[in-house]
């Protein structure tokens, strides 16, 4: 019996490992179609929005689509903040280093924590407080490390902060959706729809459909963004098999770490001392916030449900 439970409790690890691999590689190479082939970042977004259909269809298999108006409202709020962040992300990656951008946007849980405190009157756990402090210090260090003085240099940092805010707001509304009983499949479907709704904006930003681009550009965009979309599906599968307080901080920390390592190795750039400290603080701070939040959620669920057998499901999955 013990062996069986142990096997179940570890069944999330392969999916989490695949998620880290897919998202880590995606983050490091997402800008290649633009940097190497001049493919507009708006077109990369269009490709991403189409790849999201794959995990959306997979998520709906065996699940019911919630047709309530409240599900649509929260779904659109979650989807538009997530897709808007993606639209800004592809722009940021064309002008800034991925090894700094991804650790910075990984600080989005700080926004979620602060919103929950201000709007829901929730108390911040001590670990989350430490995480927020680390996040603030990391942002300051990233600002100091960005010392090239160019408009482009300042722009990627601003975009990364806006993405961080957008995805923090997204996670907050995702939590609110879960409290009114909206299932993950419905939320993910609305996220996909929202992504498609912003396609005209992306095409406008790209100056047209860029049909004259070399074939390598859309092909590489499709491969990298498919890694992003399928990685989101692996996240859902990992959460359905493991405890959120273990799965969430593990994936939240390791994916940007892999992106940083691959980016530094491939592009052969050495970050400054301030940037290095900022990267470490950003990843540690984000991990502390996610861990504290998930532990609190599990404790609250245990108090409501009373003693029960281990539950390997998760009601809340933050997917971009």
UniProtKB/TrEMBL annotation:
Where is the protein situated, by its record's location annotation?
A: Membrane
EamA domain mapped to chain residues: 11-143, 155-290
InterPro entries in the cross-refs: AA-Vitamin_Transporters, EamA_dom, EmrE-like
Q: Which domain of life is it from?
A: Bacteria
Pfam name, any one: EamA
**Keyword list, A-Z:** Membrane, Transmembrane, Transmembrane helix
Per UniProt, what is the membrane topology? Multi-pass membrane protein
Query: For this UniProt entry, which segments traverse the membrane?
Result: 12-31, 43-60, 72-93, 99-120, 127-145, 151-173, 185-207, 219-239, 246-267, 273-292
Q: Which GO terms describe its cellular component?
A: membrane
Which family, according to the similarity comment?
Belongs to the EamA transporter family.
Protein name from the UniProt record: DMT family transporter
User: What organism is recorded for this protein?
Assistant: Micromonospora musae
Cite the source lineage.
Bacteria, Bacillati, Actinomycetota, Actinomycetes, Micromonosporales
